[in-house]
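Write out the bound-state structure for flavin mononucleotide.
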Amino acid sequence: MSKPLKQIHLAAHFPGVNNTTVWSDPAAGSHIEFSSFAKFARTAERAKFDFLFLAEGLRLREQGGKIYDLDVVGRPDTFTILAALAAVTEHLGLTGTINSTFNEPYEVARQFASLDHLSDGRAAWNVVTSWDAFTGENFRRGGFLPQDERYSRAKEFLATTQELFDSWHGDEVVADRASGTFLSDAKAGAFVHQGQHFDIQGQFNVPRSPQGRPVIFQAGDSDEGREFAASSADAIFSRYSTLGEGQAFYTDVKSRLAKYGRRSDQLLILPAATFVLGDTDAEAEDLAKEVRRQQVSGATAIKHLEFVWNRDLSSYDPDGPLPDVDPDVSENHISKGRAQVRMYRDPLATAREWRERAEANGWSIRDLVIETGNRQAFIGSPSTVAKTINDFVQADASDGFILVPHITPTGLDPFADKVVPLLQEQGVFRTEYEGPTLRDHLGLAHPDDVREERAAS
Amino acid sequence: MSSTSPSPLHLAVALDGTGWHPASWREPVARPRDLFTAAYWADLVAEAERGLLDFVTFEDGLGLQSSHYGELDGRTDQVRGRLDAVLIAARIAPLTSHIGLVPTVVSTHTEPFHISKAIATLDYVSTGRAGLRVQLSARPHEADHFGRRTFEPISLESLRTEAGQERLSEHFDEAADYIEVVRRLWDSWEDDAEIRDIATGRFVDRDKLHYIDFEGRHFSVKGPSITPRPPQGQPVVSSLAHQTIPYRLVARATDVGYVTPHDTDDARAIVAEIRAEQQTAGRADELLHIFGDLVVFLDDDEATAVARRERLDALAGQPYTSDARIFTGTPAQLADLLQELQATGLTGFRLRPAVAGHDLPAITQGLVPELQRRGAFRQAYEADTLRGLLGLARPANRYAAAAATA
Ligand SMILES: Cc1cc2nc3c(=O)[nH]c(=O)nc-3n(C[C@H](O)[C@H](O)[C@H](O)COP(=O)(O)O)c2cc1C
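---
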């Protein structure tokens, strides 16, 4: 008998502050009004998606010393918008990106435990570690953390919040009127944590939430980031959505689990994935090209080139050839507040390669940026896209995908209407939610069950 | 002013657990086991909205509740534990349509940048009904939850000494800075910053985004916010005050101050002091509400209310005391008292129901109709935003004004 088919996990990333989002399209709506978020969440829930995902950046991005104005700018507060979305959905998981550098464990634990209560067990936390002093200028403690301590703080931060979540066991609130006993234990919530980054103690003031702890996501890509995920996360938000890269990442990360005593199904790999649908594959290809031209205006192309060149290239014509001058290889100073910059680890080599390709194909700067970046992960008719997604998951390129539509808030609708039914027909995606919590959707055990399992073995 | 038609008063309700009396959770109408569910709060706020109240506040804190001011009490016979107030308010916002939502925020240990965007977002999800109540925490055991500062032991008595007043001053100065940062961040985007200009490819006009460059003793914050200016421009800022230092904060920085007068003379003196501070702060021409706080036990006849209060006190093992005046009686008697106090210059009241499940419906179904009969309270919601309900105009953006005159 062949291996049983894996069930696919699907999630929806609310479009926003990135250059995937096409705000210039006539169909593009508000990225900030609650109605957009509610519409998007309801579509995801109608399609029986596992969860909705929100990214976060705590300082407006800058380039060349000025606020970057070519992409969508502005987003809501993560916790607040997720709590409001809990009111307009019933099953959909609610995943928020929250930084471990510019927050404190007691407060973040209260917020996630509260969100988990208020959503009846649907909260998840994507732990990110951006540490830069640029972002720090918005916070009390400023840029206090060296880069190489970002994961040591993140790890201790996460461990500390776990201690806080576990400081209530779930049976303390008895509220027995007759005896006048509200709490069965005066020490409910007691904790002491002494470590390198946190030295705190006292009593946590939120009783244990339905999921015990929120589901933990991790999105870092460095070796340390992958180790952090293998030791502590339930799922990874990765950038590898192609078959080959996906399989390599999947194998790498899952092979790190054993040394933490964890099984392969205890860490899900969910890459970000863009998509373009058409009635036919050819139509989708044409549409995809058009979307990429919308995503990369002439102005955006120049800014994108500046990431690699690390220089002001505003005098160059986007419809002309690439710059003759070489990248500035000193420390990045052109772009601030985005994770993307370090994708180009050898700018001289990238510049050389890009010049060669542009010359060989007769590409302008804008053509080059369109051709080298941002090809959508899934392009085709609904049946092609459904088949490709299923093939990737069955081939262990991932456990599913976090879809990133390019139109707010309706970009998910065609996928929900046309692709999801095909996946359901193939028996690889749920037709109904099987349980109320996000852990149920993701097939993750409740922490209390894990504890019992450990105790029994 | 015409004496035939009294000027309408504003009414808010302060929500805290099952009610303000420590034994309230033992009443049959209380739902103590539901305190950590959204449905519980949704039901309370829906009741408040049926009564056309201006807003509800949500109590909060960064530690367990305690019957002592400065330390935990280890008690298990009272409600302990609570959910984050901002998140409760956000969870309720899509389920309501007119009532203002005013969560408590602790300024001492939290980030003004985070709170500014949280309240801005509450304003988006409620389409213009957000406020916040700023509270500080001088409690050493709450500072220990953060481990960044250590505070000396504190008690209400110690705060009355000279050293205590100095310490209080410092905390309130920090709270003033905090509110200043929160407010500047709300204005850090001009209303029309988003341009979506296809010709130039620009989504925003960055000349309409502003660094706030705040530098204070306790923190500095660069800005701009990551969240655009909220629907109300400036959500409503409020705080509770019992003496001169906090009165000054109310006068300098808020839109609504909650005060605790024990009689009309007391009320008159408090109002005079705050109005004088308001003048000193150069805000004489701005609308600043002063709300009287009262704990209420409301029943159809006074004897029933008194008996209920006594029964709860017996369960608690001691008579209930409060920083606020405790009213025990009928809706008509309460209406009399509120109108009498209103004549001293108070513009509204924040009622603290002794038992949420009993005294909140008594406010909305007893007191409100009584005030309506007297022409002293609205018959229908007259505005869609909290500022609108409170008669506060949508303010100009401080940075837009500066840019226009530059
Ligand atoms: C797919 C992906 C998405 C990310 N999204 C965010 C985000 O929304 N906010 C953020 O602050 N960092 C984000 N990051 C940054 C990482 O979480 C991480 O903090 C950063 O990459 C530094 O860690 P590293 O060196 O291990 O990559 C993202 C990273 C990846 C790979």
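---
Residues A 55-57, 97, 99, 128-130, 219-222, 224-225, 237-239, 272, 339 surround flavin mononucleotide (CB under 6 Å).
The domain at 10-405 of chain B is CATH 3.20.20.30 (TIM Barrel).
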